DNA sequence: TAGTGGTCTAGACCACGAC
DNA sequence: TCGTGGTCTAGACCACTAC
């Protein structure tokens, strides 16, 4: 159990926020859109741009490849992963499977204390939604999910879920989070808490699976909307300049 | 599609076999049992033992942490992951979910050529089983599964499946692969091919899920057998010496 | 035959944990 | 405080790709 705790801390504390290294800088530049999808990432360019030697750059590329925002081919270098609706669909289908499993397992071991904790997190989430604070809402949402998965998951599964979170957050940020989705999310969350409180594994599994698939549908729709808008405004203007 | 090809090659070619670096040496030493589960892995020890500087050791530990054979805690170093039946159960439950999903997706896109290719691989597998060549059989089995997953999987899912393969192979090697399992595996494989040939996603999903769960049951049983034998022969003799 | 990716060396430095 | 993990530097070398 302390094992999971460690992984949890590691993901939240170390890997994502703490390191002052260039990994987080590069990640930020990618998800902020400064480096557009598909652009090449050569070690020389990056090491001069960030004023560092090439070893840190190499490690950063390795790390970000693991996180899924960079794709690298052996001996051919790395590039910012190009992300389309197919990719998002496959990614979220995979997540739906995993999160459904983790929710089922969590339901089988959840205690009264866990349920109370989840209710606290959920009320914070709903507070953020009411206050129209999207940023904090997404953070609370992430916490809600992670708490559930930490109840049962192996470090592998936890790591997987967390690895994807950063790229998903970036996508929501880029394409916008539709306001009307919040009520559905709140509904799902409450139902999931209910399933956990009754140790109803099957219910938790199904609701969580559907919950993720719904978010997939919304995200794909947002991407399609953005694409049609973009092509209407300026056809062929999808190419952005690199560094 | 070329994307997947690259990942596939990368995993088989690069990450596992090609590199002459110490990563593979260290992995071999772990899975061969030279370094027992739970033993600490300090950078100094390893770098002197493998006669190299500490940077390669660091990378190796990072890599093997990703593969799941090493667990590392921030600022507290790394140790060989201790593996018990609970861990194996969680790991294979997770795999069952993922592989079931991938099998379903594969069934929806499988062509006649894919089915033929799978039949070739399967006949090679069955040939190895007949010839009592366990090593080659496991390899062909791995190829069978990977071929299916490469039909649909994202590089993330593929990477995940492959990351676990090495530790599972090590476990089967350590605890022994029960001969009577082969007939069940062959049966499952043929049924899976049949499901793919009819593009029957649901059948592929269910059979593949069961297939993995069965292997979980066998592996856990083998581990329990080994444990009871071990404690009967020499109680408390589970501690092995480090380097 | 470049150019570049990938790896390694041999040191240095800081941060954190154990004593 | 001392040991250790974690990161960085600045250069070297080999393998592979592209030309």
Protein described:
The structure is a homodimer of 243-residue chains. Chain A is mainly alpha-helical and 243 residues long. Helix content of chain A is 74%, strand content 4%. Chain A is built from ten helices and three strands. A three-stranded antiparallel beta sheet of chain A has the order 1-3-2. Chain A is globular. Mean pLDDT of chain A is 83; it is low at 1-19 and 235-243.
Going by helix content, strand content and strand pairing, the class of chain A is mainly alpha
Fraction in beta strands of chain A? under 5%
The proportion of residues forming helix of chain A, as a percent range, comes to over 70%
Mean pLDDT of chain A: 83
Radius of gyration of chain A: 19 Å
Number of helices of chain A: 10
Q: Care to count the β-strands of chain A?
A: 3
List the strand order in the largest sheet of chain A: 1-3-2
- H/E topology pattern of chain A: HHEHHEEHHHHHH
Uncertain residue segments of chain A: 1-19, 235-243
Ends distance of chain A? 44 Å
Q: Could you tell me which chain pair has the largest interface and how many residues each side has?
A: A-B, 33 and 33 residues
Oligomer: homodimer
Tell the overall outline of chain A. Answer: globular
Q: Main beta sheet of chain A, described?
A: 3 strands, antiparallel
């Amino acid at each position: 159990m302390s094992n999971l705790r460690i992984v949890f801390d590691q993901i939240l504390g170390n890997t994502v926020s703490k390191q002052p290294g260039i990994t987080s800088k590069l990640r930020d530049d990618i998800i902020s859109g400064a480096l557009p999808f598909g652009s090449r990432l050569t070690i020389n360019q990056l090491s001069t741009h960030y004023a560092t030697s090439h070893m840190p750059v190499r490690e950063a590329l390795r790390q970000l490849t693991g996180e899924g925002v960079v794709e690298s081919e052996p001996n051919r270098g790395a590039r910012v992963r190009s992300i389309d609706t197919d990719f998002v669909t496959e990614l979220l289908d995979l997540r739906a499977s995993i999160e459904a499993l983790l929710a089922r397992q969590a339901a089988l071991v959840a205690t009264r204390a866990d349920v109370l904790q989840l209710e606290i997190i959920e009320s914070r989430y709903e507070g953020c939604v009411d206050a129209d604070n999207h940023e904090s809402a997404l953070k609370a949402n992430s916490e809600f999910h992670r708490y559930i998965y930490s109840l049962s998951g192996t470090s592998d599964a936890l790591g997987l879920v967390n690895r994807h979170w950063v790229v998903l957050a970036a996508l929501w940020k880029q394409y916008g989070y539709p306001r009307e989705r919040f009520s559905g999310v709140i509904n799902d969350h409450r139902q999931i808490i209910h399933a956990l409180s009754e140790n109803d594994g099957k219910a938790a599994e199904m609701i969580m699976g559907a919950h993720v698939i719904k978010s997939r549908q919304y995200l794909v729709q947002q991407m399609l909307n953005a694409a049609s808008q973009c092509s209407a405004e300026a056809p062929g203007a999808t190419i952005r300049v690199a560094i």
